[in-house]
């Protein structure tokens, strides 16, 4: 019960109420603008990973190895990729290149595609079909696996492609479903260690005895975890065979 | 109030309302989408698709927060009532912004896979047994479904078809949507934040909604009469003012608006037949009780809208007992005429005494 101005939608706004409503309009529009600015400028840096289209298409030759995820150990490089380098391979989108790489396991092959790079981690997104991966002439040198012992590591399981720069940001819990989709599509998984391991921050992570990453590990993707497993050096790439029974979420 | 359905019964105030809200939303989105990437200067930048998804998602949350603050703010201070007037349009805008957010997410995170993106959305993350890593997308899907239901049924056609009580209960889904959005944000983007400014803004927004609702509830808590079926005290006659009402809560939770018009008292339901707006917070204009929300009008003696309109609200019986106006808690059928209760002549004060 009051004599204050009474607003009826289909009638002109009472005079004394106009100033108040005008103030509310200014506050509303200004507040929304300010909220947009503050929320926008406080987003975190997604990190250095990116597609390196500026490098152009890269073509090298090397030995294909199924770890079980497809890796190539370079024997004949170019200006950017040197012999002795090892890197993972993937196809366009959320797909791996397993079906193309398996017939060439242990053989010499020529690969061609675009590099994704994040610090020491790099991966090649191959061109489609035989343009991206085809057998090469010559004898393939034997790739010797060098066991490095059992290690307990702390860090995060990610899909290698998004982490390497296909998505920015490409890690974290908000990205978990996307990472799972990539892993289900055979994109190689990567473990991002909180401490350098044998000089490396990124390790290819697999299941025990050369199996694929077990489904049990998918629940822990994008979480900060501690787990144990055997590390093997293959070329200049570290492969960690995670023991899923030892996985613990780290607070 | 209307005798026929038209898509929107536009008037000048609605145009202004929608214009202001659109300007606010446009300002938010334009600054987030086009200004902040320049300010951030990350090299390489956040993916445009992710940046856009965040912009629309954050905007939808802020819009929902504003929507839920308008109601209690108007109950605490009636000067905010005009913000309630066209809130449905703001709600529909929110739904479109939320759909855009969902579109960016679906066509980025769940695209490029051999799986159908809608199927991928549902099965990619099945970690239901844990809090960290829980598929928070499900909360977003639920909130979006709620918003779609609310936007679809926001038109007066649905109000009439479903009846106001059912429509009103259905539209309480906005609270389910908000809680779901809060869970979506808490288990999603907040888990990855290094910069906690957004977290702070999220908490401030959610706290504003909770505090305003508690404050409105506290200010309106009434001492409902304990006796069921008995006459309920309203107020002494001198407490009434011409053209205004006093609101009384009945034991069953309903509220009655007792109006003084032309020296006589009449009681009608406090809930407007349109959207359950608080009729007792309105006033008499042109001999008709006028709802403060959308201006629906009723004859206070019969609870009927003037012809050709057909809306009706229940009426109540009044009596004067021991110098106190009382209302009977049993409602008459909507539109039932009740003779108004004349107020006794005020006893003139003796000369020289203070009024």
Description:
The complex is a heterodimer of chains A (251) and B (355). Chain A has helices at 15-41, 98-101, 129-132, 160-166, 176-184, and strands at 50-51, 58-66, 70-76, 86-90, 108-118, 121-126, 133-135, 145-159, 189-197, 200-206, 224-234, 237-249. Chain A is α+β, with helices and mostly antiparallel strands. Chain A has 2 domains: 50-135, OB fold (Dihydrolipoamide Acetyltransferase, E2P); 145-249, no CATH class. In chain A, strands 2-3-4-6-5 form a 5-stranded mixed beta barrel. With 355 residues, chain B is α+β, with helices and mostly antiparallel strands. Chain B has helices spanning 12-40, 48-76, 81-85, 87-106, 117-123, 137-152, 156-162, 164-170, 173-187, 197-220; strands at 232-235, 245-249, 255-261, 264-269, 283-285, 288-290, 297-298, 315-316, 318-321, 324-327, 341-342. In chain B, strands 2, 3, 4, 8 and 11 form a 5-stranded antiparallel β-sheet that branches. A 3-stranded antiparallel β-sheet of chain B has the order 1-10-9, with no helix packed on it. In chain B, strands 5-6-7 form a 3-stranded antiparallel β-sheet, with no helix packed on it. In chain B, helix 1 packs across helix 2, helix 2 (48-76) runs antiparallel to helix 4 and helix 2 runs parallel beside helix 10. In chain B, 41% of the residues are buried. At the A-B interface, helix 1 and helix 5 of A face helix 1, helix 2, helix 3 and helix 10 of B.
H and E order of chain B: HHHHHHHHHHEEEEEEEEEEE
How many beta-strand elements of chain B? 11
Give the overall silhouette of chain B.
Answer: elongated
- What is the CA-based Rg of chain B, rounded? 25 Å
Shape of chain A: elongated
Biggest sheet strand order of chain A reads: 2-3-4-6-5
**Biggest sheet architecture of chain B:** 5 strands, antiparallel
Q: How many domains in all of chain B? A: 2
Estimate the strand proportion of chain B: 5-15%
Low-confidence stretches of chain A: none
Oligomer: heterodimer
- Rg of chain A is 26 Å
Helix content of chain A: 10-25%
SSE string of chain A: HEEEEHEEHEEHHEEEE
Q: Average pLDDT of chain B, to the nearest integer?
A: 89
How would you characterize the largest beta sheet of chain A?
5 strands, mixed, barrel
| Unreliable spans of chain B | 223-228, 347-355
Roughly how many Å apart are the termini of chain B? Answer: 42 Å
Distance N to C terminus of chain A = 56 Å
Largest interface: A-B, 64 and 85 residues
Share in β-strands of chain A = 35-45%
């Amino acid at each position: 019960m009051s004599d204050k101005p009474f607003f009826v939608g289909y009638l002109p706004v009472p005079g004394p109420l106009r100033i108040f409503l005008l103030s509310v309009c200014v506050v509303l529009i200004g507040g929304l603008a300010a909220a947009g600015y503050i929320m926008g400028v406080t987003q975190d840096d997604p990190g250095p990973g990116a597609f390196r289209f500026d490098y152009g298409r890269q073509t090298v030759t090397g030995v294909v190895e199924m770890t079980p995820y497809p890796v190539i150990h370079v024997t004949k490089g170019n200006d950017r990729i040197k012999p002795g380098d090892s890197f993972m391979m993937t196809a366009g989108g959320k797909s791996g290149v397993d079906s193309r790489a398996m017939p060439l396991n242990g053989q010499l092959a020529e690969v061609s595609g675009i590099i994704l790079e994040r610090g020491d981690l790099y991966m090649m997104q191959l061109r489609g079909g035989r343009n991206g991966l085809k057998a090469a002439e010559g004898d393939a040198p034997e790739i010797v696996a060098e066991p490095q012992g059992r290690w307990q590591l702390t860090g995060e399981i990610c899909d290698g492609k998004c982490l390497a720069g296909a998505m920015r940001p490409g890690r974290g819990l908000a990205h978990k479903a996307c990472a799972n989709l990539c892993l289900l599509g055979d994109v190689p998984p990567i473990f991002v260690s909180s401490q350098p391991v044998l000089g490396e921050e990124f390790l290819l992570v697999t299941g025990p005895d050369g199996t694929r990453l077990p489904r049990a590990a998918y629940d822990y993707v994008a979480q900060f975890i501690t787990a144990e497993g055997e590390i093997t050096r293959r070329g200049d790439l570290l492969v960690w065979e995670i023991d899923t029974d030892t996985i613990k979420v780290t607070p | 109030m209307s005798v026929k359905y038209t898509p929107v019964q536009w008037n000048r105030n609605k145009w202004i309302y929608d214009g202001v809200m659109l300007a606010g939303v446009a300002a938010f989105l334009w600054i987030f989408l086009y200004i902040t990437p320049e300010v951030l200067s990350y090299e390489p930048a956040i993916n445009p698709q992710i940046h856009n998804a965040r912009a629309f998602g954050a905007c939808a949350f802020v819009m929902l927060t504003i929507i839920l603050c308008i109601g209690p703010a108007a109950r605490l201070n009636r000067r905010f009532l005009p913000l309630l007037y066209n809130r449905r349009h703001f709600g529909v805008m929110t739904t479109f912004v939320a759909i855009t957010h969902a579109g960016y997410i679906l066509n980025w995170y769940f695209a490029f896979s051999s799986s159908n993106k809608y199927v991928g959305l549902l099965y990619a993350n099945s970690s239901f047994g844990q809090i960290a890593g829980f598929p928070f997308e499900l909360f977003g899907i639920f909130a979006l479904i709620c918003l779609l239901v609310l936007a679809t049924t926001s038109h007066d056609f649905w109000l009439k078809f479903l009846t106001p009580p059912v429509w009103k209960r259905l539209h309480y889904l906005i609270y389910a949507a908000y809680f779901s959005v809060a869970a979506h944000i808490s288990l999603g983007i907040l888990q990855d934040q290094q910069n906690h400014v957004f977290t702070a803004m999220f908490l401030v927004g959610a706290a504003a909604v909770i505090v305003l609702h508690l404050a409105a509830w506290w200010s309106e808590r009434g001492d409902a009469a304990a006796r069921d079926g008995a006459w309920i005290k309203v107020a002494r006659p001198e407490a009434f003012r011409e053209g205004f009402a006093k609101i009384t809560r009945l034991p069953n939770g309903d509220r009655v608006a007792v109006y003084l018009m032309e020296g006589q008292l009449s009681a009608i339901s406090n809930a407007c037949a349109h959207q359950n707006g608080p009729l007792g917070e309105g006033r008499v204009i042109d001999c008709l009780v006028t709802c403060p929300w959308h201006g629906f009008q009723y004859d206070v003696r019969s609870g009927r809208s003037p012809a050709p309109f057909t809306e009706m609200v229940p009426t109540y019986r009044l009596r004067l007992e021991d110098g106190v106006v009382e209302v009977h808690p049993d409602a008459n059928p909507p539109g039932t005429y009740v003779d108004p209760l004349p107020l006794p002549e005020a006893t003139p004060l003796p000369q020289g005494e203070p009024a």
